[in-house]
Amino acid sequence: MIKVVNLNKEYKSGVKALSDINLHIKKGEFVYIVGESGAGKSTLVKILLKEEVPTSGEIYLNNINITNVSNRRIPYIRRNLGVVFQDFRLLHNKTVYENIAFAMEILGSDPKEIRRRVPIVLNRVDLGRKASSFPDQLSGGEQQRVSIARSIVNNPPILLADEPTGNLDPDNSLQIMKILNDINTRGTTVIMATHAKEIVDSLRRRVIQLKNGVIIRDQKRGGYDE
Ligand code: ADP
Within 13 Å and on the Cβ side, how many CA atoms surround 123? Predict the structure, then answer.
């Protein structure tokens, strides 16, 4: 599903953020990417999202090489990869409903399908009653749930979450993890970069640990530490 081959990233500053990364993530997996600050997690996420260009190496999405795709191909990536960020990144002048609908509009979805689909994903994150609220009227946990609903509204096979609980308290984090786990159980591949030790230790899944840009561990049902 996602294959990363001999990936390297050196920033212009000379920092080698990723060194010879090789990864194979299969359909339906739940994978944590862990490592201390500066390990290279965000760089890897950004490269997968095509927000950064690797120095060398290749990335395949469903056997299609997306390393050097043109902007024309970006919708293909958007359709396949839902994304959730630590800071939610919601549009503050749009309601909850509109934020989610917008993710479908930019892919050219049929308005009827949008009206059908948005309430379904809002209920999936238990926010059906907040459709007409604005993000600023919601708690952090609720905003992150909106962001998750938005990330899955186009039914992407893969969900990429970058520190999704980073700004949340333990109760809200737990709720977010239940939702991500539920999404994974329904068949979506989930890749989550995190340094939340309690979460990784309690909900055991595959753990890929980075240190100084190198994979130092790739373990089935691992904990945060070895
Ligand atoms: P993490 O997400 O694990 O904290 P990052 O991927 O942000 O790690 O950073 C990996 C390394 O790359 C760090 O040494 C960081 O300082 C460096 N780095 C990250 N982004 C940039 C950038 N835009 N320019 C230069 N160096 C960067």
Answer: 5
* Predicted model pTM: 0.95
Distance 67 CA to ligand 1 centre (A): 20
57-81 pLDDT, tens digit each: 999 999 989 888 877 777 788 889 9
- Which ligand 1 atom is at minimum distance from the Cα of 18? 10
Closest C-alpha to ligand 1, atom 12: 17
> Are the C-beta atoms of 49 and 81 separated by less than 8 Å?
yes
pLDDT over 70 percentage in the chain: 100
Tell me the CA–centroid distance for residue 15 and ligand 1, in Å.
8
Ligand 1 binding residues, C-beta < 6 A: 11, 13, 15, 17, 35, 37-43
Q: What are the CB-based long-range contacts (under 8 Å, 24+) for 216-222?
A: 218/23
Sequence-distant (6+) residues with CB within 8 A of 133 are: 95, 96
